[in-house]
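Honest question from a wet-lab person: if I give you the sequences of every part of a complex, can you actually get the arrangement of the whole thing, not just the pieces? Trying it with mine:
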Amino acid sequence: MSVVERPPLEQQVTLVELVDRVLGKGVVITGDITLSVAGVDLVYVGLRVLLSSVSALEAAR
Amino acid sequence: MIHLYAFACGLRELPPDAECVQIGGMSAVVGRIADGDRCDSHDDVVRHGLVVEALVERADGVLPARFGERFTDIEALERAVSARSVELERRLRDMRGCVELAVRVGRTSRDVQRDGLDGASYLRARYRAAAEDAAAVSELHAALQLRARATAVSEQVAGSLLHDAGYLVGRHEIDEFARDVDAYASRHPEHTVVCTGPWAPSSFAGAA
Amino acid sequence: MIDSRVLSAQGDVRDLRAGPMPRRIAADPESVERGLAQLVLTLIELLRQLMERQALHRMEQGSLDDEEIERLGETFMKLADRMDELKAEFGLHDDDLNLDLGPLGRLL
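Yes, you can. This is the full assembly:
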């Protein structure tokens, strides 16, 4: 059992925003980024493109 | 291995643990990681973000790189960047003097009162609520867009999230922008509204 | 560790950013069951939202007749009632129903 220390809410909000921006935004040069999510290698950029395509398909219908 | 944080122009000072490689008119701000090391833990991600954000105060313009841009050595970095230098330098120039403000809007109570309603009335009430939300958000975005040099609106809004956007502004425009957001929030107590920043302009960096 | 960059805030900001915030971590059987309920209810909620968005879109286009609107509305109301019951049963709130998928973002 463990209870995680909670920093002030505003810092949490800032931290979450920071991580989102680092992983999801910013210039991509190599075009193919491999990240490990829960110990499983994923081609991150490829997945993001896939998710965007699904929502674009939905919006187009 | 070389890890790329961002490109900068008019760089006055490097953040701790970062190096600078001059490529054409740009300063590539990099870090070095051991070859076998994955370096993609939550801490690594946060550290990347902090280095990029530290650059904003130390340079005229910052073009953030997405986390994970890695190169075997400096020469490999130079080759990759030179192949796209015209586009990258143009984007970096566009970032001079600018920061990004992030705005998110959500609906606090997600359902309408159901008691005693028939199906049609319920669905029409949901329709009206959705239409009102859309109109309010549209009004906010129009006002903020007037204050911004560029906007980046997320298409992936779902559930209680109504609006998720980044606005590119000059530093001296931050206070007025925040006041506009405050004004919207007071007019719409039914919405959760958060504005954060100033950030490095990551939403406007694009894919090369 | 990091200075706050919140310039303006109204409402419970956790509604918008519930995902990666630290939660109490426990390992008793009750919370495993609760975790499963959380997963299932989140997926049902996702489907409900997608279906409702479709229905509202068609209402906007005018391609639903009155009987269809009544039937759809009834169905969504019943679904909302059932969701409330299930949430109450498992002690879950709206902001619990949002799975954080890390770099893939949040499900809802």
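Two things worth pointing out. Helices of chain A lie at 9-24, 44-60. Chain A touches chain B at residues 13-15, 17-19, 21-31, 33-36, 44, 51-52, 55-56, 59 (CB under 8 Å).
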